[in-house]
Each structure stands twice: as structure tokens, then as C-alpha cells.
Amino acid sequence: MDFKTVHIENLNSSLRKQGDKREIKILCFDLTNASQKAQLLWCTTGVFVFYLLYGYLQERIFTLDGFQPFGWYLTLIQFGYYTIFGWIECRIKGVTRRIPLGTYLLLALLTLGTMGFSNSSLGYLNYPTQVIFKCCKLVPVLIGSILIQGKKYGPLDFLAAILMCIGLALFTVADSIISPRFDPVGIMMISCALLCDAAIGNIQEKAMREHKASNTEVVLFSYSIGFVYLFLILLTISDLQTGASFCAEHPIETYGLGLLFSLSGYLGIQIVLTLVQCCGAFVAATVTTCRKAISILISFMFFYKPFTFQYVWSGLIVVLGIYLNIYSKKRGGTKGGFRELWIGLKQCWIKHNRIQRRLLTNV
User: Fold this and answer.
1) Which pTM was predicted?
2) Which in 45, 48, 102, 304 has the greatest CB count within 10 A?
3) Cβ atoms 144, 199 nearer than 8 A
4) Tens digits of residue pLDDT in 106-132
């Protein structure tokens, strides 16, 4: 009798675990029953493929002569494509709106600021400088989450923010000295994009948690309302006609590449969210950081620009700040973060000395 009871309870618990197993999909491929290593491999491949293509196409569009003033029109094209993709996905999945329309009006405005200023900044900055600024998103996000959500952070998070600011300042100084394309207007634009991004991340997180909304819903309504905003703004300031007439002269380089650019960005977002779901935020942050580093390398390889080693070591300071932030999140942002980090560094140094002594002994 007892054996049967235990057997039935074990069977019920195993069935419950199978029912609780979350569905993992990359595009139309079901990876739910695949191992976690296979899920990580496929997600990482997808992130690299789509986001490297996204960065390449974005810079490629801005190499078109005369396109530099039309960053906001490119954003309108991107929002239009994102709206179509989001609507198709919502129809397939049967998603309905849960977040109030008033919240979406604010989210759409912030999304417009994030994407619009980011795209437009490429008319005034090198692509690597733009990527380095995006890597430092932690700084305004940290400030925004303290002000909007009342979150508390440990000392490692603040040290990470300081290192990012130092690395960013050194990278920007190097760019201003050697780059013929450097313009302070671009710095202002990408800074505005980061401020909007900090606000949108916190408001979006709060709204999705309270109303249990899906990512597909947020994408559709944020970008569709943002499209209406931007269409009216460009129509009012007469940039819509000039942008449309310029793109009509170069349809393949603008609308054609814009379609691939938008599609790769949209699919990249979905795969990053899947990566977070199956492997966690720590792994996702590591993968996206590596992707950004390779994006910078590809930019130097495919598009001519001056180079200095100050780019390398100032970029490494930024990377150190990013990984301190990731380490802090992994440890839960405890007050003992500095002590644990110091112990870890000492252990690494002891191992290094031990290996060095062995090598010298063998010699």
C-alpha cells in the first residue's frame, strides 16, 4: 500500500514537472526537449548571426552618400517593419492587449527616442563609438531603476558604473582626436538614446510584471504607436517628403537593406529573450557582450576608419565594468561583493604563481 502511494506520488510529480517545463522555441524550431548545451549553442549562434548582420547593415546604410541627415526616416522605416512583424506574430499566437493604452503612449515615446537617437547618431559618430556607448547602458539604467523602482544596488554595481564612465570617456577622447567623422552632436544623440533606454527598461519591466503581458504584445503596441508619433513629427517638419524622395532614388540601399536590417533586429530580440528564458540573464549578458566586441572588429574590417590602441585598452576598461556588473548580479549584489572579488583575485594570482614556478622548475 505504501509502495503504491509513493509510486503514484512520484508519477504525479514527474508528470507535473513535465507539464511545468517551459516551451523553448527559436523561430519555428522547437528546442524544448534538447539539452541545455544544445539550446545555448543554437541561441548563441542565432544572436551572433542576426545581430552581427544588424550592425553591418546599419553601418552599410549610413555609408550611402547623402544619407546622414535621414536617420529619423530610417527609424520610421524600421518602426513600420517592426509593426508588421509584430502584428503577424500576434495574429499567429492570438495575443491580446493587457497593458493600459496610456502606458503604451509613454513606452512608444521612449522607444522612439531610443531607436531614433541611436540610428541618427551614426550620421555623426563611428559605429564602434556608438557600440561602446550602448555597452555603458548600465549607468543610466542604474540611476533610472533607483529613481523609478526604488531598487538598491551593491558597491560592485557602482564600481562597474564608474569603470564604464572612465572607459567611455577615454574611448570618446580617442575618437575625437583621430576620427574625421566625430561630432559632439552624435554624443548628445547617443546619450539621449541611453537615457530613454534607461527609462523604458524600468517602465517596461514594471508594466509587464504587473499585467503579465507578453513580449510580442509590447513590441507591437510600442512600435506601432511610435510609428504614428514619428510619422506626424516628420510630416510636420517636412522631413518626411525629403526622406521619401531621397530613398525613392535609392530603393535597394534604403528600403531593401532597411527590410533586412529590421528583420535581423526583430529576430535577434526574440532569440535574446529565448536565451534569457533557457539559460538565464547571466549567460545572455555574456553572449551579447561578446557579440558587441565582434561587431566592433567587423566594423574595422569592412569599413575604413582610423585606429589607435587607445580604443583597445579603453574598451577593455568598459568590458571590465560590464563583467563586474554581471559578477555582482550573479552574487545577488551583496555587501560582501568586494571581499569575495578580492579573495577570487588572490586565488587566481596564487594559481598563476604556482604554474609559473612549475614551468621554471621544468626549465
Assistant:
1) 0.72
2) 48
3) yes
4) 999 998 998 899 888 888 887 777 777
Nearest to 86 by CA among 219, 212, 214: 219
CB contact at 8 A, 218 and 208: yes
Rounded CA separation 350/354 (Å): 6
- Average pLDDT of span 230-243: 89
Between the alpha carbon of residue 203 and those of residues 141, 148, 210, 275, the distances in Å are: 11, 8, 11, 22
Whole-number pLDDT of residue 68? 84
**SS3 assignment, position 357:** helix
3-state secondary structure of 153: coil
Q: What is the DSSP string of 168-232?
A: HHHHHHHHHHH-TT--HHHHHHHHHHHHHHHHHHHHHHHHHHHHT--HHHHHHHHHHHHHHHHHH
Q: Which of 33-42, 115-124, 223-232, 235-244 has the highest average model confidence (pLDDT)?
A: 223-232
| Residue 85: all three cell numbers together | 512583424
Q: Helices 101-121 and 215-236 sit at what angle, rounded to 10 degrees?
A: 70
